[in-house]
Amino acid sequence: MHYHLIGIGGTAMASLAGLLRAAGHQVTGSDEGVYPPMSDQLRELGIRYAEEYHPVNVGVGASQGSRPDIVVVGNAISRGNPELEAVLDEGLRYTSAAAVVKEEFLRGRHSVSVAGTHGKTTTASITAWLMESAGLKPSFLIGGIVENFGASFRLTDSPFFVIEADEYDTAYFDKGPKMWHYLPRTAIVNNIEFDHADIYRDEEAYRWAFARFINLIPRNGTLVAGWDSPISRELAPRAFSRIESFGITDGSGPYPHWSALDVEFGEKATRFTVVHGGKEWGRVETPLAGGFNVRNCLAAIAACEAVGADRDGVREGLASFRSVRRRMEVRGEVDGVTVIDDFAHHPTAVTETIGAVRQRYAGRRLVAIFEPRSYTAQRREFQDAYRQALSGADRVVLAGLFHPERYTAETGMNPDELVASITAGGVPAGYISDVGRIVSEVVGSLQGDEVILVMSNGGFGGIHQKLLDAIGERASTR
Fold first, then answer.
1. Which of 164, 244, 324, 387 could pair with 124 as two cysteines, CB 3.0-4.6 Å apart?
2. Selected residue with higher pLDDT from 250 and 92
3. Rounded to two decimals, what is the model's pTM?
4. Range of 40's domain?
5. For residue 346, what is the DSSP state?
6. Is residue 154 scored above 60 in pLDDT?
7. 124 and 190 part of one domain
8. H, E, C per residue of 72-132
9. Looking at residue 459, what is its pLDDT?
10. Least confident of 68-72, 212-216, 302-306, 407-411
11. What CATH number should be reported for the domain holding residue 41?
């Protein structure tokens, strides 16, 4: 069949395009402002896409070319988009990405669905790699490039399919979360903390979305629930399935089913002892940093145990797991300065990421550059949480707001207030809306041993390479 994807440059949509191509379908698409790594992945796959939205892309008003059999409407696409309007006017068949994934790839397979406010991409990636190391060869669809595989998707003949189960809405015509479509049999819920204020009216609505996801797990399935998350712990008993809890403990109990003891954070690796049911499962090592990644690993181990994966293979996979692009990804090191890219945008994720960088690069000066791009990041009610989160750095640069016209003075973040409060707490901070000025001001004040942590869930104007180029240029002129 010929599938056309409106909004093909999004992480999930580009990955779905690859899956559909692997399944033998013809795939085309369209988008605006596609940036790496998804632009690179589409190019490598040979999937052509138009870099503007136009009715001709769906065969409307074209002098030649066939119309697609099915149009997949990305969840970022809304009424007024010229291609969507042409699809509706002409009565073309359309659907959502989540519905295609369910019917084309998940039905009839064992879906290992990874949900939660934080850590979905990393946990799903770890789970897929551990299952691979254990010989299960899973298919997967994940919201990031898994470095061990060099891709965000794979289609195999395995009965297992690992999928990142996102709570964001499905499409303009289906406002339920994508994760409700994913037929979870083994389901991970890492944690639950209010997010996506543009989609959910309040915390209660957000909690209910996860409660229903948990309710979808069949009786012969497994819920792997994060016990360090109060809301996850509260909702877990609603499952009709077996429950496997996980969390970090100091040894005083009460223990979750899966726990980590004697955690050691080193420069190149994190080591901890995995305990299951009060008995030692094994001492493990991972290159990942931070307490949140210990939890991510525990969740993946528990899910692998639930599907009967070989334990030795799981241990080997933990040691050899590399990471996910844009998750504490080192983009380069020039003249003693390290530039790291991370997708963190929720206050908790920012806190955890800064803490993990501190552990990995102990003793070095940390410069945090944060772009408040998501709807949640720019909401006034989260402003104080960001003050606390960003104050863990040695210097903070707050970038320009993304579409600030969506907010009022009462609902939107006040960047001047935020940087003033951070500075008042003893951490120098500044609000700089222009990427070029951020680069020049940060590079101009470097001493030579800094770690620059860039946090954004968007392309951020290619700031990472611009920083590296400017640092290199400065070094060459000394």
1. 164
2. 92
3. 0.83
4. 2-96
5. S
6. yes
7. yes
8. EECCCCCCCCHHHHHHHHHCCCEEEHHHHHHHHHHCCCEEEEEECCCCHHHHHHHHHHHHH
9. 79
10. 407-411
11. 3.40.50.720
Same domain, 191 and 297: yes
Residues 173 and 304 both lie in one domain: yes
Burial 76-102 (b: 16+ CB within 10 A, else e): bbeeebbbbebbeeeebebbbbbebbb
Q: Is the pLDDT of residue 323 over 90?
A: no
Measure the CA–CA gap between 285 and 299, rounded to whole angstroms: 15
The tokens describing 291, both together, are 């307490």
> Which band of pLDDT confidence, cut at 50, 70 and 90, is reported for residue 10?
confident
- Rounded to an integer, the average pLDDT of 163-190 is 96
Same domain, 299 and 232: yes
Encode pLDDT of 250-272 as tens digits: 655 567 999 999 999 887 889 99
31 vs 75: CA distance, rounded Å: 12
Query: Helix, strand, or coil here: 141?
Result: strand
Positive/negative CA dihedral, 129, 133, 138, 139: positive
Asked if 269 and 353 sit in the same domain, the reply is no
Among residues 85, 82, 72, which one has the least CA distance to residue 29? 72
Domain boundary among 320, 337, 366: 320
Domain count for the chain, please give it. 3
Same domain, 87 and 132: no
Residue with token string 């979360």: 177
C-alpha span between 214 and 207 (Å, rounded): 11
Q: Per the domain annotation, does 185 fall within a domain?
A: yes
Residues 356 and 463 in one domain: yes
- Give the model's pLDDT for residue 474: 86
